[in-house]
Amino acid sequence: MSRLAACCCLAWLLLLRPGNVSGAITPGAVWLDNRGQQIQAHGGGILKVDDTFFWFGEDRSQGLDPNKRYVSCYASKDLEHWTFRNQVLKLSDPENFGLGWLIERPKVFYNAATKKYILYAHVDDGTYKLARVGIAISDTVDGNYRYLKSFRPLGLESRDIGQFIDDDGTAYLIFESRPTKGFVIARLSPDYLNVEKQMSLVPAPLEGGAVVHYKGLYYVIGSHLTGWNPNPNVYATATSLEGPWTEFKDIAPPALKTYNSQSSTLLRIIGTKTTSVIFMADQWKPKELWDSRYLWMPLQIDGGQLLLPEPRPWTIDINTGEAKY
């Protein structure tokens, strides 16, 4: 590691003190909900309903029933203060997946035609050989979701998943397909209960895929295949979801391994003055998953260039879209 990288890394580590700085989001800090409990929304995603953001993610709390898998839901109007709403999924093994079965990276879509909330997640056995997506459904955003089924989208393996909703309201699933050495961006069926059409195969062996549309360009971010260990996340751009995609570039100094994080979601905040794009990532602690942290930072993004700044406390005005740090 270079001297500059080491200094940057030390400065970042100094930020990882318990608790958010008052009035700010502090990447890597212990993030507490309205109950004073550590937020459990790992590998998660955001769905905005009217003026409220709903954050869904894996609940890895200590003391949970080891035979069940849990997804939690939190609500916020400012992205800083979060109210626990429900464990929307409390699921026993639904299809005899076997010992060590798992649910990862839950993402929720709202289908305006059916008025249903559809939860997608990576479901698998303990050896990661099944490689499927599972679907659950609810009439309300923070209700108890009912498990429906699992399948391999388009007949392909699916591990890490992401979600994307385009400006025209079309919903897409992003999923890693390891045998094809890339990840797929695919359009959902009209009822969102299936995967209908492959838009593109992003030609790189990456996971943790996320997409955002910003000023006429699609930006895709992914993480290299290093399991729980962080690595230099990368990005590419295209004028269409069907590609072609540019060559991948690092989003931060490679030696810092994306500040010890892995991409999960790109959240766009459209305000009256500007549009901000927030990089949402997980800082995994595989031996203490319940204490895994979150790295959220507004990206520097424009004209096909994207940079994740050094993490520090920051604020955002949801109405104007202005992010400051």
From TrEMBL:
<dbReference type="GO" id="GO:0005975">
    <property type="term" value="P:carbohydrate metabolic process"/>
</dbReference>
<dbReference type="InterPro" id="IPR023296">
    <property type="entry name" value="Glyco_hydro_beta-prop_sf"/>
</dbReference>
<keyword id="KW-0326">Glycosidase</keyword>
<dbReference type="InterPro" id="IPR006710">
    <property type="entry name" value="Glyco_hydro_43"/>
</dbReference>
<dbReference type="Pfam" id="PF04616">
    <property type="entry name" value="Glyco_hydro_43"/>
</dbReference>
<comment type="similarity">
    <text>Belongs to the glycosyl hydrolase 43 family.</text>
</comment>
<feature type="signal peptide">
    <location>
        <begin position="1"/>
        <end position="23"/>
    </location>
</feature>
<dbReference type="GO" id="GO:0004553">
    <property type="term" value="F:hydrolase activity, hydrolyzing O-glycosyl compounds"/>
</dbReference>
<keyword id="KW-0732">Signal</keyword>
<keyword id="KW-0378">Hydrolase</keyword>
<protein>
    <submittedName>
        <fullName>Family 43 glycosylhydrolase</fullName>
    </submittedName>
</protein>
